[in-house]
Amino acid sequence: MVRSSHSGMLGRASRACMAFAVAACMVAGPAAPAFAEEYPDILLASFFNSETDQSDTLYTSVDGQNFQSIGVAYQDATPNDSSAAWIPNTPYNVSTLHDPSIIYHDGWFYMLSGFTDHASCPGKFIPMIGYSKDLVNWAYPNSGSATNVGLSQNPPTSNSGNFDIVAPEFFQTSSGDVYITFSAGYYGANHGQPQNDQMYPYIVKLDHLAPGTQTPESNPGAAPNVSYGTAVPINLPEGSSNRIDGSFFEENGTYYYIIKNNGITNEIWSINDMSRVSNPSAWTKVNGNALTGFEGPSLVKFQGQYWLYTDKLADYPAGASDGTTGVFVQRSGSLASGWWGNDRISTKNLDGRDIANRHGTVIVITDPAAKEVVWKARERAGYVYEAGKNGVEVRDVNGVTEHYFWENGVMAQSKEAFVDGAWRWYDSDGTMAFSKDAYLPSSGGKWVRYNERGEMIKGEDYRYGGWYYFDPTTGAMAKGWRTLPDGRQVYYDQVTGQMLHGWHNVDGQNIYFDEVTGARR
Prior knowledge:
By secondary structure, this protein is mostly beta strands.
């Protein structure tokens, strides 16, 4: 399988063992705010952009499918240039997390990755944790420990204590306990053998986790105040020499572990006691194949359904793959079966520009204090929320009639919505588009057009001095050859979508198209 470097900061340059750093004094946290209103639950996600741009971007979503960027936690200093890995002007060498994990704990947001450096810290996993109070100002990632994380037993593939670490993921229980799960062993991509992973899952409990400063905006180099236990193996009852990308999910006192087996198949296991993860008899298989051909699973329950986010494997299935990656989501009412959908998610900025995505973590924000922070971060990014608003709103702005659409207090922005019996487009400022073309990547990638009433056009349309054709079902603009309902065989320009007339070279042939009807002669 072609995979990303799950180890986050591993693979760009060698790192020294991070020194323990704690602020000289700790300031008591502010009192809990009094909330003027109860914000709705919302999804918070952290994805890295791509292998060539490893920026760790933050998103929110209210529908599980469409994610809006609210900022970047750690910006790749040199997209498309892996030879210069470090973020500039930092107190120590820092790069992006690359496959970021995120949690909210005791009033702070934490992001995670990690790596190994056996020359400086032999036999240890080095977590890298950054933190923020407001999702805007982030302390730089640091292990926060002089000793880092030891393993109670080395993976079977280790050589004199040397092993690879991949896919570290936070997990916080409903009681507030914080864990990190990861896989250790032989990661083939690090050794020029991408098809030869031999990885085993582990977990370590954090005995303490707190920020190293109350003001990361002025002291971003302050390491987190953290202490770790010893990592222990997760021994599932069905043996495997390659389990990777594990992540936890809790519901009603049961802990679910979703992990990729044999490089391609995502299994779901359950356990009722986190202290027994090394005991195979404590585990129950819930689903032997929730999804195959995808990696980096992140599982949440939102709006009464289970949502499984995964990153498409570029080379699956063998011999019939399309070589693309990116985050998809499928849903179910049961963890055991009935998954459906598996659609590519949309990740955009406020202007509707697509942002590439690779795997990371999606979490549901339910804590009232955390929800206020997330919704305000969303508003700072330009997205509008007004509690209680629903449906169409018409405004008169300087004599111009403007139309808006609201769903549960969220204004539709850079978004398509089905309103009053037709599909309509709402621009970044929330105004409905009239007589405008728009590109909709979340619908499989298509150009569409809206008429003077804001309705999606279907069939033939004359505009910009030429004829165009839009699919009667999807509204997608036609390009290339098309046989129209009246039998005419016509050709639409591959770039502009406009119908050709007269002589043109198409597919290496000089072809004449009727000057009036566009029909091939």
